[in-house]
Amino acid sequence: MTKYVKIWFMMASLYFLTILLLEPSQSISPSQAIENGNSTNLNTTNATSASLTQSESGNITMTNASSPMAMMTPTQMGSPIPDGERLFTEDKSNIMRDTNGSLVVEMVQTPKAIVAGQPATFIMNLFSTNGTWLWHSDYDVSVVNNNTGEKVLVMPNIHGHGSVAQFSYAFPSQGSYKIDITFGQQVNSPNYMKPHDVRTAEFVVNVGEGQTNTNTVTNETNANTQPGIKEIPVNVFSWGFEPNKIEVNKGDLVRLNFTTDNDEVSLYNGHGFGIEGYSINVFLVKGTNQPVEFVADKPGTFTFRCTSFCALPDAPESVHFDMTGSLVVHE
Predict the structure, then answer these.
(1) What domain count does the chain have?
(2) Residue 65 pLDDT > 80, yes or no?
(3) ω into residue 243 within 30 of 0, thus cis?
(4) Around Cβ 269, how many Cβ atoms within 10 Å?
(5) pLDDT over threshold 70, residue 21
(6) CA separation for the pair 184, 149 (Å, rounded)
């Protein structure tokens, strides 16, 4: 009996020694990751069945055995951040940025020249200074008339999937306006950031005088010279566009009639549609029909992509980043 007990102890010792030798790094909890503060670099992917480990360099990586891209950032995967400089052009939009510590908050104003009484669109984006796109962010927005000090608009609790969110507003009168943005990264979904890490930024926009009278002759001239409308139905689903190749001619007035599927997934409310280099980025609410018009004024081939993060917790991030297509504008 003593002989068998000795053999059992020897086998158990060998087993535990093997486990210790094969352990690659020190496992830490999300709360420990938060305590590392600014010295910690987070690269996260699919959080489902993931383990959080810390390497000798201090970088924290969410790893998932089911995903071959688990240790790669979106940029490394060839899936670029849809920032303003990629999607918008300076002739049609005003791209503003504010760097606050390790985060960059961006606001794109379109059209570039705002006119009182006519709606202008503002697209907000949040990413880190090292080029990492942040998945979920929250914004509080207020608009103040710099001439009178009056707060003319307050919009709390705007949530951005992929940190991209947008709003439209028609300024009541000409003048200078300040847009105050309070922003923060949503905790534990899936980025681990210190709770209550709330930051602020402000941007100034100038609004021109609205046009009260319209010349009838000019309207008739515009109607006679307006290019023909090229209407194209586009079905949007998880995760793709159909068709994913759109061909038009230079000068066409393109009307994309989007029908967005309602897949009954509560994690996201729809998809984004942005054409790189064409100053277009819109949100498509699922279960709705929505037209988007633009003039195809630049020839070439342009990538369009989903700009609102739409991957599921149990799906690889690549499904969102592969939701792309191409716009071909012929001379």
Answers:
(1) 3
(2) no
(3) yes
(4) 16
(5) no
(6) 26
CA distances (Å), origin 201, targets 55, 83, 225, 314: 34, 17, 43, 34
Q: What is the pLDDT of residue 186?
A: 67
CB 178 within 8 A of CB 203: yes
Distance separating alpha carbons of residues 184 and 109, to the nearest angstrom: 21
Residue 78: inside a domain: no
Label residue 218 exposed, middle or buried (CB < 10 Å: 0-12, 13-18, 19+): exposed
Rg, Å, the chain Cα set: 25
Phi/psi at 19 (5° precision)? -60, -45
Tell me the average pLDDT of the chain: 73
- Shortest CA distance to 134 belongs to which of 143, 124, 119? 124
Tokens of 315: 């799906």
Compute the distance between CA of residue 203 and CA of residue 187 in angstroms, rounded to an integer. 26
**Same domain assignment for residues 57 and 102:** no
Q: Exposed (0-12), middle (13-18) or buried (19+): which is 114, by Cβ within 10 Å?
A: buried
Residue 119, strand partner residues: 170
Question: Phi/psi of residue 98, each to 5°?
Answer: -140, 120
CATH number where 314 lies: 2.60.40.420
What pLDDT was estimated at residue 9?
Answer: 56
pLDDT in tens, 203-215: 999 999 876 444 4
Are 55 and 254 in contact, with CB atoms under 8 Å apart? no
Place of tokens 């100038």: 206
Q: Average pLDDT for residues 220-244, to the nearest whole number? A: 79
Domain containing 247 equals: 225-330
The encoded tokens of residue 26 equal 């020190």
8 sits in which H/E element: helix 2-22
Q: What predicted TM-score, i.e. pTM, was given to this entire model?
A: 0.65
Q: Pick from 273, 257, 251: which is nearest to 330 by CA?
A: 251
pLDDT higher than threshold 60 for residue 319: yes
The residue from 63, 96, 113 where one domain ends is: 63
Tokens of 201: 């930024």
Beta pairing, strands 300-305 & 324-330: antiparallel
